[in-house]
Specification:
By secondary structure, this protein is α+β, with helices and mostly antiparallel strands. The protein folds into 2 domains: 3-37; 47-141, Immunoglobulin-like, CATH 2.60.40.790. The protein contains 3 helices and 7 strands. It has helices at 3-12, 14-18, 20-37, and strands spanning 47-52, 56-62, 71-76, 79-86, 105-112, 123-127, 130-136. Strands 1-2-7-6 form a 4-stranded antiparallel β-sheet, with no helix packed on it. A 3-stranded antiparallel β-sheet has the order 3-4-5, with no helix packed on it. A hairpin with a 2-residue loop joins β6 (123-127) and β7.
């Protein structure tokens, strides 16, 4: 187990471990190591790019190996929520994996939107594993130039 990695340091410096900040460091390192070994680890999935122009907000999400029917989009509390499940396709129980880095399973990603959008005019397209969502800004969120009278 990974705890063995930290035992020699604890045995060598027992006084050092009694210091609260050192104990916190050891615990933090242990949990970070542990989380990085999980299949999905602390990886945020899907990866997204959010951009904004004067008239619209655009979100691009990388969803390789998925189909549009496996993805749900919902507006919730000023955010766009992407939900779905990436299924494991080539499961070979007799395979001897040397590396297993691809993430699988259910995901839920909340993307805060930088402006209010017109939810009735949203367009979503899915092609080659990339989901593109174009959301026109609501009239109240668009920049409007004000003429100054002189």
């Amino acid at each position: 187990m990974m705890l063995r990695k930290y035992l020699p340091e604890i045995r060598r410096n027992p006084e050092e471990v009694r210091r609260p900040e050192r104990t916190y460091d050891l615990m933090d390192n242990f949990f970070n190591d542990f989380l990085s070994t999980l299949p999905t680890g602390t990886v945020t999935f899907p990866k997204v790019n959010v951009s904004e122009s004067d008239k619209e907000v655009q979100v691009k999400a990388e969803l390789p190996g998925m189909e549009a029917k496996d993805i749900d989009l919902v507006f919730q509390n000023g955010s766009l929520v992407l939900k779905g499940e990436k299924k494991l396709e080539d499961e070979h129980e007799d395979a001897n994996y040397h590396s297993f880095e691809c993430s699988y399973g259910a995901f839920h990603r909340e993307v805060p939107l930088p402006a209010e959008v017109d939810r009735d005019k949203v367009e979503a397209k899915f092609k080659n594993g990339v989901l593109e969502i174009t959301m026109p800004k609501a009239e109240t969120a668009q920049n409007k130039r004000i003429e100054i009278q002189s």
